[in-house]
């Protein structure tokens, strides 16, 4: 096994901690626990996680001690390498059935952190005799839903009583809203493992405007890297207009969040929708709030958007799906991992070009006049008509009664629809 860890060690020695973590991840399911813990120790030491380093040292010496495995796994979760906690917690659970409830809770937390919701559901059901309604049976319904098993989630939620402890009241409300949205989406969409728009709405309440037509087999509607275009910006705003029409909701003004890209997009939105452009005020009702990328804003700006004023609609053009913001938008033009604005610096074959320094109004005019009538055909990998205007309008009309309903809660999981990360 020492050879298997060579790449991990090289990355640690060179100070490339993200590279070491990437090299370690695929080894955790096959490595002996003692070896795994021994390799985590120098990684933890390199970043100053002394508590994890000490726990890893103890677990490496006695990998058959469930207490040491539990402590090691717990700290792996706390320090962002939950994948390393999974085998440790599973073995601790096998060795210490008397502490099963406590260990199971942390095992499920580790699997949730890794978006392994189907495995979390199976582990919970395997130990169902230990589960109380809160949080045990709730976690079954929640993880089943995030794994795409709507039927199990719905069946479990039917018998779930309201929590006695106010600590879980928010979770109960979130689950009920997710299930209601999933029910609505299932009536007008497939809601299967490739239905990004359906599941995005079910889990977050966000209506996704457009799907990527590239690499559908591995990206399922999300972009990896996207150098954005004026046509894509225009198409997102056109889809927003169609969604507002389907919902019978018309804001009375447009405001830009505090950023140059937000201002450019808001100028275009105001002209396309025929609305007044007004200064940004998070408490102004009836306003379309426009952001190019919510994750580009400070936490205080994002938190201020969580409980929106009556009639407000939050629009985000490019959602960074691998690092979602604090609050989900009501409408997202597209999902990408990384990329640049059409007016930002561009990376081409001749190097990096400078950002467009023209006035905001001139750039916004390029969005307004862009030809978005014909969608990008992509590489032919996406299902036919998966993102046609007719398909979008039918979906928007079907879920309209539940769209724009708060509260909005961010979700770190990608849900049942998987996409490659780069």
Description of the structure:
This protein is an alpha/beta fold. It folds into 2 domains: 3-114, Serine Threonine Protein Phosphatase 5, Tetratricopeptide repeat (Alpha Horseshoe); 192-402, Rossmann fold (3-Layer(aba) Sandwich). 49% of the residues lie in helices and 10% in strands. The strands form 2 sheets. Strands 1, 2, 3, 4, 5, 6 and 7 form a 7-stranded parallel sheet that branches. Helix 6 packs antiparallel against helix 7 (100-113). The chain starts with 5 loop residues before the first helix and ends in a 23-residue tail after the last helix. The model has no long low-confidence stretch (mean pLDDT 95).
Topology:
Layout: H1 6-14, H2 17-24, H3 33-46, H4 50-61, H5 66-78, H6 82-95, H7 100-113, H8 117-126, H9 133-146, H10 150-158, H11 169-188, H12 196-204, E1 207-208, H13 216-219, E2 223-227, H14 230-247, E3 253-256, H15 260-273, E4 276-277, E5 287-291, H16 299-303, E6 313-320, E7 331-340, E8 346-348, E9 351-353, H17 360-368, H18 389-399
Parallel strand pairs: 1-7, 2-7, 3-4, 3-5, 5-6, 6-7
Antiparallel strand pairs: 8-9
Helix pairs in contact: 1-2, 3-4, 4-5, 5-6, 5-7, 6-7, 7-8, 8-9, 9-10, 9-11, 10-11, 11-12, 11-18, 14-15, 14-18, 15-17
